[in-house]
Amino acid sequence: MTKESNTDTTRRLFLTALLLMLPTLALFRNVHVIEKDDLVEVDGWILKRSDLA
């Protein structure tokens, strides 16, 4: 295997790995970070999340 062929193989593997990661990243697109003082509704009551802990 020549050095140029090895570089092409490495580049091809890297690009393949990136393409395979795209569906995985799409799973995390709708995940949002919950702030400590977010407002939540519990049984019709609007409460701060920090009050529930």
Mind explaining what this structure looks like?
The model has no long low-confidence stretch (mean pLDDT 81). The chain has a two-stranded antiparallel sheet. It is rod-shaped. Helices cover 55% and strands 15% of the residues.
Entry keywords:
53 residues; two-stranded antiparallel sheet; alpha+beta; rod-shaped; 2 strands; 55% helix
Number of strands: 2
Form type: rod-shaped
End-to-end separation in angstroms reads 61 Å
Output the structural class: alpha+beta
**DSSP strand (E) fraction?**
15-25%
**Helix coverage percent:** 40-55%
Largest sheet: 2 strands, antiparallel
Radius of gyration (CA) equals 23 Å
Mean pLDDT: 81
Number of contiguous helices: 2
**Which sequence of strands runs across the widest sheet?**
1-2
The secondary-structure element order is: HEEH
Low-confidence stretches: none
Summarize the structure.
The chain has 53 residues and is an alpha+beta fold. The chain contains two helices and two strands; from the N terminus they run H-E-E-H.
Per-chain topology:
Blueprint: H1 3-27, E1 39-42, E2 45-48, H2 49-52
Antiparallel strand pairs: 1-2
